[in-house]
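User: Okay, second chain of the day. Same drill as before: sequence in, structure tokens out.
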Amino acid sequence: MTAITILGSGRVASSLATGFAKAGHKIVIGVRDIAATGQWTGPEVQFGSHAEAIGLSEIVINATPGDGSIERLTALADALAGKLLIDVANATGRDERGAPSGLLYPTDSLAERLQAALPRTRVVKTLNTMLAPVMSNPSMLNGAPTVYLSGNDLDAKSVVRSLLHALGWRNAQMLDLGGITTARGVEAVMLLVTDVMKASGFAPFAVSTVR
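Assistant: Same drill. Structure tokens below.
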């Protein structure tokens, strides 16, 4: 059993917590406001502040809103030192209705900025090109979805692959794009994801490579 910390308590955190809990992992949820845990819709987990939750695991998942991730995680740099940080967030602006609009980092990526801000942390980008339910249950789709990985540390990506296996992803569905700079492409896909949802509704889907 591996302890996994998830920062955030929304739909993405709930989906991932459910998948990893079913696989037998211990889940710790890091939140800014403990009082808000009453709205948690996922499995039974341990709650704590962001710093407390990070201290309980070697693997940390960033499922916080991407527009505030840099500031939030930079403040936790010491706690994150030596950890594996899996970034599943997308950094977009918000329109007047609160829907995602343009990319906040159009010339690089959130993942790159996190790696630069956290040099003692190994950052891997993955799982950000699909709706939350698919992250922990890829077999729910009619076709075989693709999950992409971007990161500079090969050992860290190997660990992430093992965690993806626990969620039901097969090797043939995993595509290692290379270093952390390749996160630029997968983060830009968020703009397509938003338009697909507007056109076809909130049905689960993933942006995948078909051969």
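The domain at 3-200 is CATH 3.40.50.720 (Rossmann fold).

User: Thanks, on to the next one.
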